[in-house]
Design brief:
The protein has about 325 residues and is an alpha/beta fold. It contains ten helices and eleven strands. It has two domains: about 140 residues, Rossmann fold, CATH 3.40.50; about 160 residues, Reverse transcriptase/Diguanylate cyclase domain (Alpha-Beta Plaits, 2-Layer Sandwich).
Length: about 325
C-alpha cells in the first residue's frame, strides 16, 4: 500500500515507517495535520496513519479536511487509523466521530501491526476494484448502446459543464448538428438491421473526424435517431467550418450504398453549425441556431454543411 504516516515526533515516525517499509509498503511522512492534508492530495494514499496531538493542526482537524475533500471527489474514501499513546475508550469514540476508522497504539507489537496492515491491504484492494467497477458502469451509462458515442443524457451534462467553463473564460463555442440524408428511405429499402449498421458506420466516421482534430475537448454524441451532434468548446469560426466540411466528406468516403438517396446513390449527411465567438449565455439558442442551419443545408440540396457565426452564414460544400 501507499501509506501516509502523520506524526510530529520524528523518532516515532522514522521507527514506524521503517517497520511499515519492511512489510513492503511505500510510506510518505508528514509532521502535522496541515502538511498531511497537502500531501494527501498529492500522494493519494491507500491508508492514513494519523497522530492525534500535533502542533499547527491536530489529527482530528486534518481528518475533517480530508473527509470534506473526499466528499467532493468521485468514489473517494480512504481508511484513516489514528495513532495514540493512550488507547482509551474516549479516544476511540472521538476518533470515530472525527471521521477515523480505527485507533491503534503506537507501541503495539510487531505481529499486531503486521496483521492490521494485512487487513488494510485487503480493504485497499477492494476499494480499487470497486472504483474500477464504478468507473466502468459510469462509462456504460454515458454511452449510446448502438453507436458507442456519448448518449444524449451524458452529452447534455458534458455540454453544460463545458459551456460554463467557456463562459468564465469568454472562449468561443460551437455546436454541429448532423443528420443522415433520407434515412427513413434507407430503413424502408434496406431494413432496420442494415439501418443500425449504417448508424454505427456513420458514428465511427464522425468520431474519427473529431478525434483527428487538434481540439481535445471536442466530442461527438448521438443526439437521437439518425441525428448526431458535435460539441466544440474553445474553437474559432474556421475550425467550426473545417470540422463541418470534414464530417460531410468523411461520411461520403464511407461510400455506403443508398439507392433511395436521389442524386448521390450513397449515404450522405447534412451538417448545420453555429458558433459564438465569446460564450456568455444562450446555450439553448445555440443548439436551435445550429439546427436551423441543418434545415437550411437540407433545403440547399443535402450532402453539405452550413455554419453560422456572429458575422453571418458561411456555406461549406
Amino acid at each position: 500500500m501507499k501509506i501516509l504516516l502523520v506524526d510530529d515526533a520524528r523518532s516515532v515516525s522514522i521507527l514506524l515507517a521503517s517497520r511499515l517499509t519492511s512489510f513492503g509498503h511505500e510510506v510518505c511522512l508528514a509532521e502535522n495535520g496541515e502538511v498531511a492534508f497537502s500531501k494527501f492530495r498529492e500522494f493519494a494514499p491507500d491508508l492514513v496513519l494519523m497522530d492525534i496531538e500535533m502542533p499547527v493542526m491536530d489529527g482530528f482537524a486534518a481528518t475533517h479536511l480530508i473527509r470534506d475533500f473526499e466528499a467532493s471527489q468521485q468514489w473517494a474514501w480512504t481508511p484513516i487509523i489514528f495513532l495514540t499513546g493512550a488507547n482509551t475508550t474516549d479516544n476511540l469514540v472521538t476518533a470515530i466521530e472525527a471521521g477515523g476508522d480505527d485507533l491503534i497504539a503506537k507501541t503495539m507489537p510487531e505481529a499486531v501491526l503486521r496483521a492490521k496492515m494485512k487487513a488494510m491491504a485487503r480493504v485497499a484492494g477492494l476499494r480499487q476494484k470497486l472504483a474500477q467497477a464504478n468507473l466502468k458502469l459510469e462509462e456504460l451509462a454515458s454511452r449510446d448502446g448502438l453507436t458507442g458515442l456519448c448518449n444524449r443524457r451524458f452529452m447534455d451534462l458534458k455540454t453544460d459543464a463545458s459551456w460554463a467553463q467557456a463562459c468564465e473564460r469568454g472562449d468561443g463555442f460551437a455546436i454541429l448538428m448532423i443528420d443522415i440524408d433520407n434515412f427513413k428511405k434507407y430503413n424502408d429499402h434496406y431494413g432496420h438491421q442494415a439501418g443500425d449498421d449504417c448508424l454505427r458506420s456513420i458514428a465511427r466516421a464522425i468520431e474519427a473526424a473529431v478525434s483527428a482534430s487538434k481540439f481535445e475537448h471536442s466530442f461527438a454524441a448521438r443526439y437521437g435517431g439518425e441525428e448526431f451532434a458535435v460539441v466544440m468548446p474553445g474553437v474559432s469560426q474556421s475550425a467550426c467550418e473545417d470540422m463541418a466540411r470534414g464530417i460531410v466528406e468523411a461520411i461520403r468516403q464511407c461510400a455506403l450504398p443508398h439507392e433511395q438517396n436521389a442524386g448521390w446513390g450513397i449515404v450522405t449527411a447534412s451538417v448545420g453549425g453555429c458558433l459564438v465567438e465569446h460564450a456568455q449565455d444562450g446555450l439553448v439558442a445555440l443548439f436551435r441556431a445550429a439546427d436551423q442551419q441543418l434545415y437550411q443545408a437540407k433545403e440547399q440540396g443535402r450532402n453539405c454543411a452550413r455554419c453560422v457565426t456572429a458575422s453571418g452564414v458561411a456555406p461549406s460544400n
